[in-house]
Design a protein that fits this description.
Order of helices and strands: EHEHEHEEHEEHEE
Number of helices: 5
CATH class of the largest domain: Alpha Beta
Radius of gyration: 17 Å
CATH superfamily of the largest domain: Formyl transferase, N-terminal domain
Number of domains: 2
Shape: globular
């Protein structure tokens, strides 16, 4: 998974839903703001994102989580597809299925979470569950967090965070929309830093050089 000099970073993108994050990456790449290419898209279930990926001319594989005998077999299949595509970096883009990251991919898998970790993370904290929890806690700010993925939910080293204000009378939908606008900025930023070799992991801290 070594990125060759002067070649764009090869991304493997994992999806489970509508594909909005994937399309944003496609746009950033095509408009020359992100030095990368999408080598493979892997979907954990039949979803709208598959059709969008195919329309964009991407290499797409459906690997249904529920049809695999166990997490180990599922993880092995994902890793094999990523290796076949020679992915340098794996991007979880609304990916909701559990897979175990093998040692050779440590520090090479990113995820984006719709809250400011380490609060409001962990098992079951995804989508509107997160925004509902933020509002119930009375937080005055929220945002998004791009982090390296480990085999513990939402505990990996933080790369980029962007904030939004929580407004009086906010609904989960309204907050989600504002947070997502920051996700569109934060994820390409984090990938760009990786592509430039500017990220160094020291324990649970990411240093940007």
């Amino acid at each position: 998974m070594t990125n060759h000099v002067n070649e764009p970073l090869r991304l493997g993108v994992l999806i489970s839903g509508g594909g909005r994050t994937l399309l944003n990456l496609v746009k950033e790449i095509r408009e020359g703001r992100l030095p990368a290419q999408i080598a493979v898209v892997i979907a954990s279930r039949d979803c709208r994102g598959i059709g969008l990926a195919k329309e964009a001319g991407l290499n797409v594989h459906l690997v249904p989580h529920k049809q695999m005998p166990d997490v180990a077999a599922y993880s092995s299949r994902i890793a094999a597809l990523l290796e076949a595509a020679k992915a340098d970096l794996v991007i979880q883009a609304g990916f909701l299925s559990l897979w175990h990251i093998p040692a050779r991919y440590e520090g090479r898998v990113m995820n984006i979470h719709p809250a400011l970790l380490p609060r409001f993370g962990g098992h079951g904290m995804f989508g509107h569950h997160v925004h509902e929890a933020v509002l119930a806690a009375g937080c005055k700010v929220s945002g998004c967090t791009v982090h390296f993925v480990t085999n513990e939910y939402d505990r990996g080293p933080i790369i980029v965070q962007r904030c939004v204000r929580v407004l009086e009378g906010d609904t989960p939908d309204a907050l989600a929309d504002r947070v997502f606008q920051q996700e569109l900025i934060a994820y390409p930023e984090a990938i760009g830093l990786f592509a430039a070799g500017r990220l160094r992991i020291d324990g649970n801290v990411v240093h940007v050089t």
